[in-house]
Here is the input.
Amino acid sequence: MEKINITLKEKGIKPTYQRLKVLDYMSKNLRNHPTVEMIYEELAKEIPTISLTTVYNTLGTFIEKGLVCGVTITGTEVRYDINTESHHHFLCKKCGDIIDVDVPCSLSGKKGELVDGHKIEEIHGYFKGTCRSCI
Ligand SMILES: [Zn+2]
Ligand SMILES: [Zn+2]
Here is the structure.
């Protein structure tokens, strides 16, 4: 928890208890790219007073400060990712898992480079199909 407290302060975010808990959840669930609802349901077991709006607003603050990023592969929901480095995702159409895949991104340029005269700030890539566990 102390490390999370420092991370928040470094980013200029007031470390309230609820913010600490949200970031704590994110850092312990690196691989599941949770939705707001998933985080809320988990935290509500421990903090009955927490609201969905609070979790939603907290994630908004985290995105603004670059602590997490939003993944919108499914087209219907935002999944939150604490890994803010450029990386690719695999969406399993059977179980709905979003998995980080370790493949090089060499097709379309790098952060800071130009693509057809446009400056790149973010690169997103994803695959859809059947995951390792569902094949
Ligand atoms: Zn699957
Ligand atoms: Zn990811």
Q: What stands out?
A: Residues 2-79 form a domain with the Arc Repressor Mutant, subunit A fold (CATH 1.10.10.10). The chain has two domains: 2-79, 86-129.
